[in-house]
Amino acid sequence: MTETKRPRGRPPKNKEVEKPHMDAFHADASGWRNAMSGLGMQQDKSVYTHYGSARILNEKELTQLYLAEGLGYRIISVIPQDATREWVYVRDDKSRAILDREFERLGAEEAFYNALVFLRTYGGSLIIIGAMDGNTIDKPLNLKGIRSIEYLKAVDNTCVNISESEWDMNPSSPMFGKINKYKVRYYINDMYVDQMIHHSRVIEFKGDPVPTSTFSGVDRKTRYWGMSALQPVYNALSALGSVTQNTLNILLSFNTGTYKFKNLGALLSSGQEELLSKRLQAIETSSSTMNARVIDSEESYQKEYTSLAGIDQLIGIYMLQLSGVSSIPMTRLFGKSPSGFSTGDADIENYYNFVEAYQKNRLKRPVHLFLNMLCSLHKLPLDPDFEFNSLYQMNETQKAELARIEAETEKTIATTELMYINAGLRDPLAVAKKHGWEEEYDDIIPPEIPEVDDDPAST
């Protein structure tokens, strides 16, 4: 059997070359393409752009970014500061008074702030609850037997050895796939302490989740706890750092001088570099003492300056990029006033909405667990109704306007109720009781009228 060979060379002259079909001018899942202009085709350089392998930051790098990189510290700490600075409001008056005292005694706001900072730095953290219930720390907490809560200690997930922790592998257990006892190592006065701590005695904080696949760059610890807040912003943070560092290098070499010597090449080829060095030193010495340069008539000196035009706009672009990926507005991250006609109010409003969502997703459940421990200690109703106080702060003008509106509202209500009383539609005593004024208005209570006997025989 003869194998049919592939034709070679150009097509015959009488054969018409296939023209691009109109279907080539369309958009599909692979991107925009245009065969005539080359957009999206082989000659388009942009089609070869792809994302390489991600660089996963290790614990040492995360620590250095938090300690030494000012913007890294800001990205880590700003959101925990705003999430905890107004703290929580317990609606029940009796419970609120007791719980507020406990918050202050235990330093609850600081402990939760530290836990959130560790969470955002390393991807996870714990708050160890010093609850005294008669059992050791590796035993389940007896919620009804809590006699006192002595301390709150926040530790980051680098102190937790998940390999040596005890896991619940029972599929029918509500703790399935979670740690039942944490192997914790933390430092006290330059000494480390190893303890097995039951999960009911800690409050766990986890970071943003990562894919649970066996991707080689993500280890077991990161898959359990989640990723650091510095991981997704690292490229933007590195780019801004590179730009500012290069700007500093430009400033250090902002002006340079050029000397022109006659027969410089011959001077160097004859091995007279020392003579040239002495000549340059003499010129610089004369410049420092006389504020002028003394040179030979056949020599010349020219001062050149590096242009800095547009550098501020370039840095601003990278600042805006970092602000976007960190979800922190420019005014909060950099302390930079908004440019143009914007007042920045919309940015702050969006940011506060983001923080409120962060409180709901990352902070509400841990606070609820802690409140239940305090309520059990003080024999208060469990599951108290609470909310996070608003982040919005009114200025003096806004406070005065709010007071005026409230006063006008009270005046309108009082006028309306007085009208009902005069019309006989409302009882004055009922209105007084509604506002808690019945003790102040005893005179409005009508006197008791003695009963009249209708039996004529008694008269």
**Can you give the helix content as a percent range?**
40-55%
Q: What form results from the Cα inertia axes?
A: extended
Task: Estimate what percentage of residues fall within beta strands.
Answer: 5-15%
- Per DSSP, the total helix count is 13
Averaging pLDDT over every residue, what do you get? 82
Number of strands: 12
Spans of at least 5 consecutive residues whose pLDDT stays below 50 are 20-29
Let me know the largest β-sheet: 3 strands, antiparallel
Determine Rg (CA atoms, Å). 38 Å
Kindly report how far apart the N and C termini lie. Answer: 144 Å
Counting helices, strands and paired strands, the structural category is alpha+beta
The secondary-structure element order is EEHHEHHEEEEEEHHEHHEHHHEHH
Largest sheet: spatial strand order = 5-4-9
Could you explain how this protein is built, in words?
Among the domains are: 59-229, no CATH class; 255-305; 396-449, no CATH class. It is extended and about 115 Å long. The strands form 5 sheets. A 3-stranded antiparallel beta sheet has the order 5-4-9. Strands 6-7-8 form a 3-stranded antiparallel beta sheet, with no helix packed on it. Strands 1-2 form a two-stranded antiparallel ribbon. It has helices at residues 59-68, 70-84, 93-106, 108-122, 220-225, 234-252, 264-269, 273-290, 311-326, 330-333, 345-377, 396-422, 428-435; strands spanning 26-28, 31-33, 88-90, 124-132, 148-156, 166-167, 179-188, 191-198, 202-206, 255-260, 300-305, 386-388. The protein is an alpha+beta fold and 459 residues long. Strand 7 and strand 8 (191-198) form a beta hairpin. Helices cover 42% and strands 15% of the residues. It is built from 13 helices and 12 strands. Helix 2 crosses helix 4 (108-122).
